[in-house]
Amino acid sequence: MISNVVKTDLVKKEGEVICCTDVTCPVCGMSCDDVEIELTPTSVTTKNACLMGDAKFQELRSPHRLIYPTLNGERVSWQEALEAAADILVKAKRPFFFIGSETANEAMAVGIEMAEYLGGLVDGNATICHGPTVMAVQDVGQVGCTLGETRNREDLAIYWGCNPADSHPRHMSRHSMYMRGFFVEQGYQGRKMIVVDPRRSPTAAQADLHVQLKPGRDFELLDAVMVALRGLELNPDTEKVTGVSEETIKKMAEMIKACKFGAIWVGLGIASTHGKHHNASMAMRLTQLSNDYTKFVILANRGHCNVAGFNQVLSWTCGFPFAVDYSRGIPRYQPGEYSCVDALRRGEVDAMLVMCADLGGHLPKKAVEHMMNIPVISLEIAPGPQAFVSDVILPGVLDGMECEGTFYRMDNVPIRARSFCKPPFDFTESNEHTLKQLLKIIKEKKPKE
Amino acid sequence: MDIILNTGSTVYQGAIIKGGNKFSPGYTREAGYCNISPEDYEALGRPWFVRVTNEYGDSVVVRAKKTNTQQKGEVFIPRGIWANTVVTPETESTGSPRYKNLPVKIEKCDGPVLEPEQLMRANYLKGKVDTGKKYLDRTTGQAGH
Q: What is the pLDDT of residue A74?
């Protein structure tokens, strides 16, 4: 069926200029699939991409792109780099495999296979992103929908602890607030917006109601909204605890009851603060309760492209969404023990493979300190903190541009990303290909007993 | 002064990191600052630079920005290596560090804000004579095209 609607003439070559439509953006969790590209030997012009998306596409012609492998900062051949990487991983007693995002599911699957083969720990970007929200999904269950449904139906958007104006620049214009939908023909005039955020973010500045709570009081505020929804008396201390007046909480409850189709978009404001997955569980319970009065869904604003894909791939591989340990030959799941930050902080990891993630820049200092003490292998495309902490650097390929792949959007809908050009080197075709070559050498060096 | 630190993304910081410019002055401009409410800004003595220190004693110097977007008692530093110097690794058994709602101390200081590469060296190469690791900076980046 799909083959009937998929366009085939998307990539056009006129001399050295490559034009491509319907390109999937490999930057944020929205995976916008309407980007248009004009690629010349020296420049990249994008249409429909946001500031972040355009910056990523500019990497195709950037002057700093890593194009040859390095070992301890020295240029080496591809084979030498792979051998060195395989040696590090084979000798390690407790290797850690960090599967980043902005890469395709196919590459992730090979990374996970490698972790299973060597009996290592495996974790992905979800752990430092919406890991707690995923735990809440296991705890409570998610009433979800696709982005197409929110685009066409949603008349109340609650952005809870997120700031899509900055983190997902096209979110409000494509999928929620400003889009004219099938059932919301008036566009933004037919939709209402509540923003729950302790700071007055650019998103909050556009809201019909900005609920400025005290930091770390999401659980209490969600509970209070549920009480107000049920029509019960609020605890007199509510305002003192949450920093939000009783009047505002009741107004939120009224707006929830008055809407026809509401969506709570949760961000890291609830997952990274005190309370973690309990906050997300409460948000999901609020969604379930709201369905007694109207239609309501909850969706996580996943920050990175295909970070949802890691949860999906690991789940279909071993049944768990992140933080898995294969050291006993069977997968064991324990966030807080096998998760990246915790394992590094305790200093139990003795080698690390990091694909397509900048852990040097995005983990807390205490965790990165341990990375400096152990051999680190990275699939990386640009110099930066991750290259700084790496011993072996294998040049990465830009999925969705230089090779095909499948991305999971933040509503867990898989999107096939097309390629329109080739990588600037010939030793690998994709990150999947790189990892397959590495796995082959590992299997030769350490055959299965 | 005791204060609550929140970190998070901004679209300009996002454009820098997605463009692979993490070792550029632009990264310092877009991620090496701290938004402070007008009341706290006055209480700190109208600083140009502030030093933010966490419970472990790790500290980082960032530019101070007075802004109306913050509530009193809270500051905001964009996601990046400056913020992550003070983010603590406690995950409450979830794997996710405390990127938000982190109690820290903040004080006026004379600067300077370290450039990304300097900060990485100061944080991770301090006291280590030979780690066996070499780093790649922007100037030695491999010119691709």
A: 87
* Cα–Cα distance measured from residue A96 to residue A351, given in angstroms and rounded to the nearest whole number: 6
Query: For residues A297 and A134, what is the distance between their CA atoms, to the nearest angstrom?
Result: 15
* Res A315: pLDDT: 95
Residue B21 has pLDDT above 80, yes or no: yes
| Per-residue pLDDT tens digits for A72-86 | 888 999 999 999 999
Query: Is residue B82 less than 8 Å (CB to CB) from chain A?
Result: no
- Dihedral sign for Cα A251, A254, A258, A261, please: positive
Domains (range + CATH), chain A = 70-129+305-398+422-445 (3.40.50.740), 153-291 (3.40.228.10)
Asked if A269 and B100 count as a contact pair (C-beta separation under 8 A), the reply is yes
- The mean pLDDT value for A320-342 works out to 95
What are the Cα distances from residue A396, in Å, to A10, A26, A59, A76, A393? 25, 14, 12, 15, 9
In what side-by-side order are the strands of the sheet with A35-39?
A11-14, A17-23, A35-39, A44-47
Q: How confident is the model at residue A448 (pLDDT cuts 50, 70, 90)?
A: confident
Which of A50, A55, A45, A43 has its CA nearest to residue A21? A45
ipTM above 0.90, yes or no: yes
The overall average pLDDT reported for chain A is 93
Closest-CA distance, A293 to chain B, in angstroms, reads 32
Mutate one of A30, A54, A64 to test the B interface: name it (highest B CB count within 10 A).
A64
Sketch the domain layout of chain B as residue ranges: 2-124
Tokens at A341, concatenated? 């930050």
Which residues of B are less than 8 Å from A372 in CB distance? 124-125, 128, 131, 133
Size of interface A-B (CB pairs under 8 A): 245
- Record: contact B70-A199, CB cut-off 8 A: yes
Is the CA virtual torsion A408, A411, A415, A421 positive or negative?
A: negative
Instruction: List, in order, residues 6 or more apart from B135 with CB less than 8 Å away.
Output: A73, A387, A388, B117, B120, B121
Please identify, in words, the CATH class of the domain defined by B2-124. Answer: mainly beta
Q: Are A97 and A85 in contact (CB under 8 A)?
A: no
Return the biggest CA–CA distance within chain B.
51
The helix/strand/coil state of A352 is strand
pLDDT > 90 fraction of chain A, expressed in percent and rounded: 86
Q: Determine, for residues A73 and B100 on separate chains, whether the beta-carbon distance falls below 8 Å.
A: no
Omega within 30 of 0 (cis) for the link into B112: yes
This prediction's pTM = 0.94
Taking contacts as CB-CB distances below 8 angstroms, the residues of chain B near A366 are: 56, 58, 88-89
Q: Is residue B98 a contact partner of residue A366, using CB atoms and an 8 Å limit?
A: no
Mean pLDDT of all residues in A232-236? 95
Q: Does B103 touch chain A (CB under 8 A)?
A: no
**Angle at which helices A277-290 and A131-139 pack, to 10 degrees?**
50
CB count, 10 Å around CB of A401? Answer: 27
**Least CA distance to B27: which residue of chain A?**
A384
What string of H, E and C letters represents the secondary structure of B60-116? EEEEEEECCCCCCCEEEEECCHHHHHHCCCCCCCCCCCCCCCEEEEEEEECCCCCCH
CB distance A383 to A80 below 8 Å: no
